[in-house]
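[Q] Does anyone have a clean structure-token version of this?
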Amino acid sequence: MEALSKKLDAKLQLLKLTRHKTEGVVDTANVEKIRRHKQALQAIIQGVDEVKREVEQAKLEDGESLEKVGEWGRGIEEQIDAEDDEIKILDTRVERMIAEMKEIELARQREEQLKFERQQLELKAEYSKAKEAEPSKQSVKLPKPVITKYNGALESWLTFWNKFEAEIDKTDLPAVTKFAYLKELVEPRVRKGIDGLPFTSEGYQRAKHILKTNYGQTSEIINAYVENILGLPVISGSNPAKIHDFYETLLYNVQSLETLGKTSECKALVRGILNKLPGIKAELVQGKPDWQTWDFTQLINALRAWKEIHPREIAKPRDSRSPNQRSFHVQERDPNGPRGCVYCNDPTHKPSECTVVSSAADRRKFLQEKRLCFNCTGPHRVTQCRSRGNCSRCKQRHHTSICDRQSQTANDGAAMTAAHVGEKICHPVVIVKVNGVKCRALLDTGATGSYLSAFLVDLLKVKPSRILTRGIKTIMGLVTKRVETYDVQISDTQEKCVLPVSATEIDQRELLTLENPNYPELLTKYPHLHGVEMEETDTKKILPIHVILGANEYTKIKMAGYQRAGAMGEPIAEQTRFGWTIMSSGAEVDLQNMFLTQTSVGDYEELCRMDVLGLEDTPISEISK
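[A] Here you go.
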């Protein structure tokens, strides 16, 4: 009993102490602090009430009468009632403070709206003065401006309302007529908010007020422009069409924010927008050490300069001629034919005979600056070139005039490389399966790694096992590119020997195309090749290669002692775990530039234009043929 009485006294003292703090808490005018104080009072009161009941129960158990216990409890309840009244006062103060804060916020919004409208009026007044100051000119009848229906988009409000005010609201038309025009010039979902208003002058004024309140709030309009900017897509490549669209959307929204005088407040968005262009970011900021502090004006200027250098490509009309007609047309306009010199415009000699621009390096630089094709010198990229002509010196895919090599000659040796056999070029090629997909693979002991074409990777639908992103300084500036490596299973066509291979993707439809060596003719011509069985049965003139197996893989499939050699200079057949290959002594196939593309990770489009890859663009219909 005594312990309960002490506990009750302590609760009452705590209640008294907390109550004395009430005025100080209220004076802070902090709504959250007042609410916490109220909750503390309620918790203490609850505790006092619970202890009071325990004391009453103890008194009754000790034999005290109900009257004495009730009289004692009434004294405690009076204190609790007093605290309840205090809590009600706190609730009233909190509600009053919240109402006052809302009123202040509404007043601030009204002031901002009035300021915006005053700016509009000042602009109109300045315009009127400028019109009055203009010398009188002969009146010209102009077509009436067309007001586009307002669709409810916040960013379209100012354009719509300025036109409506100038063409209709400021005229001497009756208010009812203006109201009719207003209803006709808004979309149905916008019209719903004003459809129920009466067709009177008062109804027209109320309709304008409703529309301005719903769609003309400056803060909401600014937020809409900002959301449009933040919603711009991430463009990982350097596609001119996509970046032109990106620029135009950004420019419209930035100009709108500039009109409202809010671009300086949105400066923090610039870095985020720049990061949406990882494919060209390095080009935009190259040579500009202050790029991290750019504002929207500097970003727009940088994008505009990039856009002028990289114009949007205009789609060409589809050629309706048959493939045979198109091929004939290309041959008929052979770019290596006698059409004059592209370097000095002299029609009396070929580009390869030009003495004005004489070195291969200067000619490549000339084509690079003029953005001409390195294969036919036409005004397009080499990936879009339809010419089937190759260099007359080295037989690679570039124009003869920019070749700095001598004509190919046969050399001795029998390394695992491609070489001439008479007038044919014979390569060590085997038919393999890559994750079950049949294709051709070139064996090259000079390659330190293995490679897959982009077409094959897409067909396999595999994910890269490793991805590296590197920044490379190239002739076009600093660029970035991803290098993707894939883990695949490569086997012979019977899948008796399966080899796990880690190969790098080359971003081309096929790695290269080779002339068909006509294996049946070789096997018949050379007696030492009798009994060699070649899986290649395709009779097409040109064969695509989608896999290159390097030295590491070659050592794993090589079979010791399985080689057939004839006389000096005759082709050699070698059996591997993936099947027979035939090769000859001679000059190696020059794949160095293709490998360099992956190790240096240069700008792919520019490398294609320069024909650094040395790959043909001949399309294929079946990967296994």
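[Q] Thanks! Anything notable?
[A] Residues 154-216 form one domain.
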